[in-house]
Structure formats: structure tokens, C-alpha cells
Amino acid sequence: MRGLLFAFLAGAFITLQGVANTRISGEIGTWPAAALTQCTGFVAALLIWLMLRDGGLPDLRKVKPLYISGGAWAAIIIFSNVTAIQQVGVTLTISAVLIAQLCITFLIDSLGWFGVPKQKMRLPQFIGIGLMIAGVIILKF
């Protein structure tokens, strides 16, 4: 139950962040908005880490370089999200983002990428993704 609560919070804040970044980008540009967001996110995470003391600096040596690149991916996420919201609106953007997330997680689960245990995908998972795609098509019209 707790995991679902955090997933719900993540989805809500991703949407709020996308809208806020779009407003910021209208004032200063998309890449400066992405840099500003990344910077404020770093400061917030650093302050929370210092308060909670969750892990330590020596642990950073254990992290694989591929996983460290996740921060750089965030810049692309912000840019793409802002650009999409500007061009197609919030609802369609977030719907497409959710479908993309499901498709990639489908690949990660079924192929065992990033050390995730492989899971067999069945017809209900394919139907679920298909229904979401149909929903986005309906939203567009």
C-alpha cells in the first residue's frame, strides 16, 4: 500500500513539475528551465539527505556509471516534457508519457534489463497497453 502511495505522489509531482517547467521555460527558455529545475532538485535532495543521513559518500563508488547517467536523462525528460506540453497540452503529454513508461518498463521486465528479474508478459498486459493507446487516441479527438 505504501508503495502505491509513493507511486501516486510521483505521478502527481511529475505532472506538476511539467507544468511548472513549461511556465518557467516561457520566461527563460527550455534548457535554462531544465538547468534551474535540476539545480533546485539537487539542492532539495542534498538537504533531505543531510537531514535523513540515508547512505554515505563512500557508497557512491559502488554505483555503476550507467546508473549515474540517470541524472543526465532527467535533463532530456524535462526538455521533452516541456516541449510536448507546449505543443500538445498537459493531458495528451502526460498520457503519452505514461504509455512510454509502460512500454519501456515492459521491455525492462521482460528482458531483465538493469538486473531486474525477468517476468513473462501475458495477453492481459498487452491488452492493457493497447487500451491505454486507444485512450490517448480518443483524448486527441
UniProtKB/TrEMBL annotation:
<protein>
    <submittedName>
        <fullName>DMT family transporter</fullName>
    </submittedName>
</protein>
<feature type="transmembrane region" description="Helical">
    <location>
        <begin position="64"/>
        <end position="86"/>
    </location>
</feature>
<dbReference type="InterPro" id="IPR006750">
    <property type="entry name" value="YdcZ"/>
</dbReference>
<keyword id="KW-0472">Membrane</keyword>
<feature type="transmembrane region" description="Helical">
    <location>
        <begin position="123"/>
        <end position="139"/>
    </location>
</feature>
<dbReference type="Pfam" id="PF04657">
    <property type="entry name" value="DMT_YdcZ"/>
</dbReference>
<feature type="transmembrane region" description="Helical">
    <location>
        <begin position="92"/>
        <end position="116"/>
    </location>
</feature>
<keyword id="KW-1133">Transmembrane helix</keyword>
<dbReference type="InterPro" id="IPR037185">
    <property type="entry name" value="EmrE-like"/>
</dbReference>
<keyword id="KW-0812">Transmembrane</keyword>
<feature type="transmembrane region" description="Helical">
    <location>
        <begin position="30"/>
        <end position="52"/>
    </location>
</feature>
